[in-house]
Design goal:
The protein has two domains: about 5-145, no CATH class; about 170-284, no CATH class. Helices cover about 60% and strands about 10% of the residues. The chain has helices spanning about 25-30, 40-50, 50-65, 70-80, 90-95, 115-125, 125-170, 190-200, 205-210, 215, 225-245, 250-284; strands at about 5-10, 10-20, 25, 100-105, 110-115. Strands 1-2-3-5-4 form a five-stranded antiparallel β-sheet. Strand 1 (about 5-10) and strand 2 form a beta hairpin. Helix 8 crosses helix 12.
């Protein structure tokens, strides 16, 4: 379902609809910058009967609409300029299967145009108005992008905390039995991701999936890692990339990464324990 927002350009309220393809702007509202809203339909109709407009619309449709009927659009162009030629948006859409324009009924009703076309229409109304329209539209998009970023960060935070609830309560998965640290034959065929997995967790991704078939469909072991483990993992990736550039073999890299993982994870977990213990003491 389309989501409508309202922007105000030179004291004129203009609806913006978020459609599947992109944002569409109500050109019926834009027409209000030239005359009373009651004459908006006539203004749009006069704009549509112009050959330059039809050329622009046809090129736009050919660029973005594989179902556009070019042959039918030529009939419109041939009649452009004739006094008897008074096409409507509905006729243009129905006969050419255009997607750049559409007519909406009910609340926020009117003629809507893809933002590219809406800006072109605004040029015909007033070049100055077009500039203010673009500026206000860009402001809207910046606000929406900021909001999406905040929502994404919040979801990531909540998601991570959900994982922590699972891992802190009881490692909510089975830990595979392994001898990866003692028997290094697996290294010859291991991918870089598994070298990191074994260095940090002590087992490969496949071993975790085999031990946890119910969870493996939608998750992997890293989804159940703690913040400290993910922090160390990020550091391991950097160290590993550096050692690869130095030409070190898998065995040497694995041993180094395992030492780094144990050392860093030990420091982080100890610091977290001390912090938690201090908090508990202050409460009591």
């Amino acid at each position: 379902m389309a989501k409508n927002r309202i922007i105000t350009v030179q004291n004129i309220s203009i609806a913006v609809s978020a459609e599947e393809l992109d944002d569409y702007i109500c050109i019926t509202n834009i027409a209000g910058a030239k005359s009373d809203q009651s004459r908006a339909a006539d203004i749009i109709r006069n704009w549509l009967r112009n050959r330059a407009t039809l050329e622009y619309l046809s090129v736009w449709e050919q660029l973005y609409n594989p179902n556009f009927k070019v042959f039918e659009s030529e009939h419109f162009k041939k009649q452009a300029g004739l006094l008897t030629f008074t096409p409507s948006i509905s006729e243009w859409v129905e006969q050419t299967r255009a997607i750049g324009l559409y007519v909406k009924r009910g609340k926020y009703g009117g003629t809507y145009a893809h933002k590219d076309i809406a800006f072109e229409f605004a040029s015909a109304i007033s070049p100055t108005f077009k500039l203010y329209l673009i500026k206000e539209f860009q402001r809207l998009k910046e606000e929406e992008n900021d909001k999406k970023q905040i929502e994404w960060n919040a979801k990531r935070f909540l998601s991570k905390n959900n994982y922590l609830i699972q891992t802190d309560a009881v490692k909510n998965y089975l830990i595979p039995q392994n001898t990866y640290s003692e028997n290094l034959e697996w290294l010859a065929y291991a991918e870089e991701a598994d070298i990191l997995n074994v260095a940090l967790f002590g087992f490969t991704a496949k071993a975790w999936r085999d031990a946890n078939p119910e969870l493996a469909g939608k998750n992997n072991v890293r989804d159940y890692a703690t913040v400290n483990e993910l922090t160390v993992l990020s550091n391991l990736e950097t160290h590993n990339a550096h050692m690869i550039r130095e030409g070190k073999d898998k065995k040497e890299r694995f041993n180094t990464l395992k030492e780094i993982a144990e050392y860093q994870l030990g420091i982080l977990n100890t610091a977290e324990y001390i912090k938690t213990d201090d908090k508990n003491k202050s409460i009591t």
